[in-house]
Amino acid sequence: MLSMPEATWSFSTARLPPFERAAALHSLRERGILPLEPLPGCFPQAEFTKWDLPGISVLSGTLGGLRQSGTPADAGVNDDMLLGVNLAGESTVCHLGREIRLRSGDAVFFSCAESGITAHRPNPVNFLGLRLPRKDLALLVTNLDDVVIRLIPGETGSLQLLATYLRCLGAGQRPDSPDLGLAVAGHIHDLIGLSVGAGCDTIAVAQGRGIAPRGCRQ
Question: Is the pLDDT of residue 40 over 90?
């Protein structure tokens, strides 16, 4: 069921029969909320909550048995930047015939305007997704326009701090005033900038973490 109390809403397949889940997930894509579809032979499950800070949209929850993809043709796609964090579980992100394997704690960073990026989560993954305007990171990340897709290893200290920070906010400890909200958003911008700056580009990752050129699973 989908609910929207003020600026926060949530979605869950928990109470939906298996035969109704594909249609419910398809409706999320049609409404420009989240482009999800079941993976063949997998049991689809999704449970997540969206909440907002000044200039930042945060999505947190669990996805499993699903393929997530986005193209510039999808509703709401623009040049915002997106940081996806695997809090627990493993997934694979595909881009133009290459695969990036994300372990627990890893994150991937890319532009929402970039085409051909898909994430496969055959098993449940506890995740965080942060979306924010490119201009808000341009002063914090060197050569941001050159970023196509970037893996940020889970060992990155600023990424670990960011994940801990957002867990606290997701647990209900969110700002109770506009000034505090702006301060919190500023901290998150700084931590994302530090994390992305410490991340590896696709060439370096290919040497150390195994981006394999292969056909991505459908």
Answer: yes
